Amino acid sequence: MKPPSFVYHAPATVAEAVEALAAAGADGKVLAGGQSLIPLMNMRLAAPGQLVDINHVAGLGEITAEAGGVRVGALARHAEVEASETAFAAQPLVRGALRLVAHPAVRNRGTTVGSIVHADPAAEMPAVLALLDGSVRVRGPEGERDIPAAEFFTGPMESSLRTGELAVSAFFPSTRGGTAIAEVARRHGDYAMAGVAALVAPDRARVACLSVGPVPVVVDVTSAEGDWKRAAHLVRERIEPEADIHATADYRRHLTGVLAERALREAADA
Amino acid sequence: MTTRLFGEPVRRREDARLVAGNGRYLDDLGADALAVAFVRSPHAHARITGVDVDDAIDVEGLVAIYTWEDLPEGVREPLPLLIPHPALTHGRTAYCLAKDVVRHVGEPIVMVVAADRYVAEDVCERIRVSYEFLKPVVGLENAVEGPNLVHDDVPGNIGAHMVQEVAHRDGRATRDVIAAAPHTLEFRLDIERSACMPMEGKGVYARWDADDRSLRVYSSTQTSTSVRMAIAAKLGLPLPKVEVIAPDVGGGFGVKIVHPWPEEILVPWAARLLGREVKWTEDRREHFVSSAHERAQVQHVKVGFDDEGRVLGLDVEILHDHGAYTPYGIIVPIITSTQLLGPYKIGSYRVEFFSVYTNTVQVTPYRGAGRPQGVFCMERTMDKIAQYLGKDRTDVRAVNFIQPDEFPYDQQMIFQDGRPLIYDSGDYPESLRKLKDLIGWDDFPAMQAEAAAEGRRIGIGVGCYVEGTGVGPYEGGHVQVTSDGRVHVSTGLTSQGQGHETVFAQIAATELGVPIEKVSVVTGDTRRFGYAVGTFASRAAVMSGNAIALACRKVKEKALRIAADALEADPADLEITDGMVHVVGAPSASIPLATVAVLSNPLRYAFDEEAKRATQFATGGGMDRPPVAEGQEPGLEGKDYYSPVRSTFASGMHAAIVETDPDTAEIKILRYAVVHDCGKMINPMLVEGQIHGGVAQGVGGALYEKMVYDEYGQLLNASFMDFLMPYVTEIPRIETDHLETPSPLNPLGIKGAGEAGVIPVSAVVAGAVEDAEKIVIDRMPISPSDLYALRDSSRTSGAVSLLRNTQ
User: How much is the pTM?
Assistant: First the structure.
């Protein structure tokens, strides 16, 4: 469990980071919190030839209130975002969801933007971003662009981030109405077997489901008109979960419905 | 300052060192040693057709690459079969490096020695092994149904077949008794694989001294003495030229009693060959696929009983999965077969097991060592009888208990130590009474009804066990008092975090009457004590504890004799308190034990102030006898051994209350209660610690852990991300109560406590989930997904818990 050798870059600015990434091409990988990347490298499941460590880049750790939401910088640790009153005021779901991300030791080091870019469909923060129609701001050789969540997640561990691009922040919109998240994991802090983030506003209701598809699955349940049992039924019909060693597909489908109902009810009461 | 420490909750003396990061674990040693990594088989069953190292040999930092062909005589033979048994007709062991055929994923094929582990793994990645694929055998029933074989020369994949039967006292065979019984039940039980998973994996570090022609080996082992003998034998070295030391070891739980592991031979061999220090530290993935697992069994049970629930006949057929090799023999299924009987008098008993090869990691003892499976069988049986008869589950158990006046109680079987299965002492009715009080058994139905009214499902379960502990053949202890008053205790068996430095010091301090601060304890270092068996089977406290006590008594006797001379008193009038030998009732007539140590060793040379007192012109007196009397030895030290006639039998009973979520099928343990009897407790705090750790592992086995092999023999969850050892967040608060029925077999009256906590947990949790859900639970562990599927199938088939309808 030792990684093969790699070239290590420690840029001091975003421009340098983007330059190093662009030069590395497909062989380059960004190191932020390292909570997923380093184990993958140690197990030789990932072997990037060039590692661009952004931990020395100034200005990437900020959590800023913006019109209509909160912007979280690429180096903001889960624990910092979780504790941030700015983030909580703009979107309380962010704190609620982060409390379900792994364990405190992982949250102290892991970054929220890193988790989003990693695009694990079992992770909470991609689902939250998808639910809220948030976005990811990226910087590349051709400049800066914002990618909406609906276009960002393209497959398991796959995003629309292009080679040479660095995600510099994620934007979580504020919402009218209530939000909630519910999940069931085998052990406290594990990736959930199923989980549902819910948003209930006066004019709409929707959920984002994790662990039941290649990307976070967003289901609009406005048509259920507050009948959350019916909403759960809609959700069960929309998802296509797969079996793994922890749960059958049937159980995942059932569980997602249960959690959708619970999360929607909580969001409606919030 | 009291010196009466036996039985006190003394805080662990090793913890300050260990929690402050000052422990010395295997990988903390040998910072400059060469590193080893292995190319291990990615296939479960294959013939090796070639090893190509062309791409590897130019890697900077590579020192050596070895395959089986490179190994010399002694190292190239199959590893030893440690515990032969007549029923193990087809025992097979692996080679240090695979010869021709690999039989499980993870089997070592190529050994790489390099400047560091990074380089060694780079080299491994570049070595190409070619294979001819053979059909893998995975799953117990596939193994016995054939036609594929793990070993060509083992028909039916059956390594061992054994039947033990205790006929009814009227002479009838068990099956006849069952056929004639008023009631009978028949069912099947399944238990999955789990594993020890110590926090620290295995590891070996070897230093060859070319000038001295001697070898020093550090190994993260549970038996340094036996590893030493194995290395000396395999490498052809004189035993006195080999030292083996178990440094701080980060947990064992059984896997490290197996020896020699291939690495324990290969690393010292390479160190001698290369004339360099060599080290191998196992990583977690290696541990999953190349160490050992345990537990997996399928049991077919038939039981006959009367209207009261008395078991008249019990017939159990066990399929036991021992994986690809049998280095540790068939100890696990033997323990299952014998310890299945628990605290009960069974009218007649027949047990038959088939121990079966599969293309999976070998199976050797894991804490509990076959008992959790046996207890699962017996306790599920008791629950089913109660269910069938409509009786309280504890009443059915009570009617079958061996009574306190029936000890010693002979179960008329042969135990794992080759000796009769005779229980020495116990009080099972009292244990059950305490347990029912502790958990509130009699109040539970009301609580359950109340919960049901709120739409909640709660259930209660109970499980009893008897554990043979402190198996022989022996352990020894050496105790030396030096002239500074310090007491040095050593014993040959090893420590993996149990707290031996504390309990052995408590015993020595109590026996010798010295402050515990004066006592130091060394374990598992062959430089200090050469004869030992090892740490397993809840035996360390019983075996080494008694040996150390006996050695202390020799030292004390000698100390009193020397002090009696000095004080001109009768030794019978002397005692030792706080390190002072004094006349009983006359504290002023005293001499420090340190001075006695000085006087015990007549000196010619005064190297310090203390020593002056023992030199020839200082001692005076007794000119008509030699300075060291006939039959005596210089120094204040003693050595003794404890070798029991047979094992001592601890016991206990657990109960749990669980809640199952009607929607999500999550299972939560609300309360967990333990009543435990390990005879006289040396340190109640450490006994509780052992119970807590054991229960935690038991909860893992009941609700979380299993080794998931696919049909190709790939272990799908070889990491802590997917092999679900419970976190502290998954473990309930554990409520304990104790009972102390002393063992009559040893001087201290103690029994083992190390494994107890883990043994009945699956049985208890299964019973509790069954009670909450009213669905039969015959397969453990159980996950929410499993429970959801069971609910689903019981809804569709209607086959709920209607055991009463099976007759």
Answer: 0.95
